[in-house]
């Protein structure tokens, strides 16, 4: 990535400013601005997240915000209430308090002498979520947003549930917030009150995993902050950004289809990263694109951004399966509107063990329709990767042949010509089950000439949610149902000679928590089909404007003091029949030079099961977070275990906090443990 040191505007940074809220609380902000902004006011851009501007997000902030400030904007990175150096306690995500505070921040920014009254909002993940949510609340000064790796529906596309199934990332994400919420503010910013603020957080933030498990269907808890409930509430222009290796890409398609405001969609090959630091590559000059967007909507300049197609995506070439990629080969393609009328749905019927294209020559296999039963081993899914790739460990799906051994699958004949898909595939099945609760995991793979199977997309459906997730109902054993399983959106080339493979399993652990009892699901082949969105190559794709190379401001100076470790290991103990996926995401220890702050950050995860006992599954996470300077320090450790019975989820969690003071005999200053049982609700 190219480092830019000279910008159109000379800038300055304010390390901390307190922004007053309507109830008297104060939120802490770090601000970058042109030095002459008070004489020549400029628009403001807000990033509003709980990830600690003083340390945890500082490296990323240093790349992004000085860059945009150098192009004539005031940039504010605000710690949400209860995080970083802000007052209060954070008790959950996307709640009313968070949104009201953001409205107060936006109004405050617009009123400052260095702001011309216009505000934009941008963010990735949490910051992308609340950018959309604030757009729907229509604060007067908010004129445009950029929302990356986010969703319009926090039940359908989030780290909690998918297709009515409980995701393993529900535990993983709860662990992330457990660790962040337990850290203290910095006494260099908040002064002597840091200890009281810390203890208020330790005792008050709570166990978010329990809250998320208490809402297993799409109830008002999820609807309140989902902008899909009323797209018309979003009244400002929206740029929506996603990546094929991420978990939030489907929302880009929905936003392009359903919003009625100027909008742009961008989907690359990336995981859960901003596109200028995107992995897998190629990364792009995303900050340049952001400046073009802001210049158009906040400064009224004709940058040409709105003359370009509505949706631009990376059409991925076929690759051999791997758990990580440095780059994904492909090319950029674009659509002027979405849904695109030129894209046609092509349907394949499941017959025998084959995918037969509807309208093709008569079935050469001579196989009749049949009822095929599947009851998958729990090992299916151990090579599935994460719901959302962070590219921190090899967390992408590996060769699907091992997964297909515990599945039923249907394969096309070798393709006679290249086949390109863009959009959202769907499966339509006729199924029955022998249990009242059962699930399907459906995977579409690209099978190359060597027989390797690369997962291209997948979908999940808790069959009790067959008619929607607001009011699920148990299955009647033996009764046949018509169900639709949506697959995640794709842009993918399948070369001539390759085959399409559709694989179906009744478990996908640990990506998704298994059903309360092992179920056999029976599928009627001739009455079941796969529908894929086919896009023909177009000459105009080659004439798209090329993205510039990635660039950013000067990176933060960091010194690594202890090495980290990253791994993703699958083990099977044949003596005990216990299989375990072990994940290490340990960043070691490092020093932030400009604040002389030492950081230690590590997370470990274990997901295990014993043979085919669905009630033996176990997820465990451990974290350590340390912040330290010569005269001050704190360390927090967490341990969370999630297990289940046929009727309950069981949470056991521990939190320990230590004040790193050599004069203390016992440095532990806080300890709490939780034991919670949450009834299963058809999950």
TrEMBL record:
Gene3D superfamilies, A to Z: alpha/beta hydrolase (3.40.50.1820), Galactose-binding domain-like (2.60.120.260)
Keyword Hydrolase attributed: yes
Domain (Xaa-Pro dipeptidyl-peptidase C-terminal) ranges: 291-553
Pfam families: Peptidase_S15, PepX_C
A GO term for molecular function: hydrolase activity
InterPro entries, A to Z: AB_hydrolase_fold, CocE/Ser_esterase, Galactose-bd-like_sf, Xaa-Pro-like_dom, Xaa-Pro_dipept_C, Xaa-Pro_dipeptidyl-ppase/CocE
NCBIfam families noted in UniProt: CocE_NonD (TIGR00976)
PANTHER family xrefs: COCE_NOND FAMILY, PUTATIVE (AFU_ORTHOLOGUE AFUA_7G00600)-RELATED, PEPTIDASE S9 PROLYL OLIGOPEPTIDASE
Protein name: CocE/NonD family hydrolase
Organism the protein comes from: Citricoccus parietis
